[in-house]
Amino acid sequence: MSLRAELIYDAKAELAEGPVWHDGGLWWVNINVGTLNRLDVRTGLNTSRATDDFLGVAVPDEQGGWLIARRNEVSRLDWQSGKITPLAKLANPDSRLRFNDGKCDPRGRFFAGTMHRDCAPELAAFYRLADGKLEALFGGVTVSNGLDWSPDGTRMYYTDTLTGRVDVFDYDLATGTPSGRRPLVKLSSEQGWPDGLCCDTNGNIWLALWDGGAVECFDGRTGKSLERIPIPARRVSSCCFGGEKFDQLFITTAWEDYDKAAREAEPLAGGIFAVKPGVRGQSPTLAKI
Predict the structure, then answer these.
(1) Which residues are known to be catalytic?
(2) Is 29 a domain residue?
């Protein structure tokens, strides 16, 4: 019997992304609107906080706030007051670039990448926040996207969407340094484009497929496809594990760049979905700043 994801919140978000389970709720960003949202999955109540810019990334920090990456800077957001405190800015900001996806490694170091708003090739980069500065670890990126680490912290998984691949790095947890980049998964055009991803406790990857209408699970060592869950929206943007036992997979979708006919054909696009895939995920690491 194939798995089926159920709609849990009809957000109708143009670009829902970056889901993370924290403090008993599902948090997610609506990138183009620039809001951080908290969804109570039991009641369906969604609460939003505006950040007054594109909001590509939001991760909880150990001080009870949020580390956010907007157009060209990383800041700290106080959820209760809405106060935003800038922490680091790109040294040579380009108005055509913005931060897109990011996450913390198992030691709480913050990583995030950028993308060109017109998807011009190889003008973006991947960064680590260290000592109050954004350090570029590598360039030649087009759309920096999904990111996570294996349960033992020895491998880092990463997608640059338009490569059509999930790449794996060897990861030095002591120094926070990725190396030895190599392809792990190569997608066909029928599968879709690789977007956000997360790892389960078995070390396998759950990958959102933009224009693929699905989330697909791949073996974290071999890249073999293990499971595919269809979603009633083509533009599947990201996923994370959560719930009390971290046994639910929450999935975000989008309707960005749809015309009227496409939106009518996919009324649930932009919604948030959930499924229990029979495995558990990792709890997010709080950012140490």
Answers:
(1) 195
(2) yes
How does pLDDT run across 20-43, given as a tens digit for each residue?
A: 999 999 999 999 999 999 999 999
Q: Give me the domain span that covers residue 172.
A: 6-275
Domain count, the chain: 1
Residues 158-181, mean pLDDT to the nearest whole number:
98
> What does the pLDDT read at residue 1?
56
Residue range 230-248, pLDDT digits in tens: 999 999 999 999 999 999 9
| Secondary structure string (H, E, C) spanning the chain | CCCCCEEEECCCCCEEEEEEEECCEEEEEECCCCEEEEECCCCCCEEEEECCCCCCEEEEECCCCEEEECCCEEEEECCCCCCEEEEEECCCCCCCEEEEEEEECCCCCEEEEEEECCCCCCCEEEEEEECCEEEEEEEEECEEEEEEECCCCCEEEEEEHHHCEEEEEEEECCCCEEEEEEEEEECCCCCCEEEEEEEECCCCEEEEEECCCEEEEECCCCCCEEEEEECCCCEEEEEEEECCCCCEEEEEEECCCCCHHHHHHCCCCCCEEEECCCCCECCCCCECC
Is 62 within a domain? yes
